[in-house]
Amino acid sequence: MAILMAVMSSVVWGTSDFIGGLVSRRMPAYVVVATSQAAGLAAVTVAALVTGDFGDQRGWVAPAIGAGVSLTAGLVMFYTALATGTMGIVSPIAALGVLVPVGVGLLRGDAPSAVTSVGVAVALGGVVLATGPELRRGTGGKPVVLAASAAVCFGIAMVLLAQGARTNPLMSLWGMRVTSVAGLTVAILLVARSRTRAAIRSWDVPLVVLAGLGDASANLLFSLASLRGYLSVVSVLASLYPAMTVLLARVVLQQRLLPAQIAGVGAALCGVVLISLG
User: 75-114, pLDDT tens digit by residue?
Assistant: First the structure.
């Protein structure tokens, strides 16, 4: 069940990331993130009210706040990278955030197997192979750096979300969303220079809401999976989301990759699979 939930979260995450990156091509990424997070918060709030979890213990509060801050920073950088770079390159780089929970597991005493070690090496080699041509073009450097920074933020958020889920998965997700929405609302008020620049177009509203609901659902699936399986394995399986993002980018946007980049993306995803098998 844990493996199924983790894989399902990767499919939903990959789809919502594609939608968010697509809309971010037409408007500021921080506005897309704020609106989608608000949609997710509304859905999680209804679920918490129905289940009565608001009266539960508070052990989830601190991890949820930390996860919210980290996730928000990561999403803004990730959506910006998706909007300005090649989705098939950006997404696998961001997926390497899985190395953070794996590293935390090592610090807690987990001993990596030979398969896990090979998987890490293959994944990192794949990223180098995939991003090399992008960097040589002279325009791909910024999206790559943003994606790498987002990866670190996503990895930290994974660890904290799993920690909060031990107390209450739903309330941990709610606290993370409240933190994200509050922080982004303040940022929009401080940064946006005009209502026009910060406004979201009416025809983009359904897409942004869909991205927000998808992200919230994926986070909840990941939280539940982390309670039923090893964090290192669940995190890696959930990080297979680039496969869906790359597929949608190829079908919808007709984004093409060089042969070396295709091999690199494939190696990065294979590395992630090897890590999970280890």
Answer: 889 888 888 877 777 877 887 787 888 778 777 776 667 8
For the chain, the domain total comes to 1
What mean pLDDT value characterizes the chain? Answer: 79
Q: Which of 273, 276, 249 is nearest to 90 (CA)?
A: 249
Where in the sequence is the domain holding 33, given as residue range(s)?
Answer: 2-277
Tokens representing 270 are 């294979």
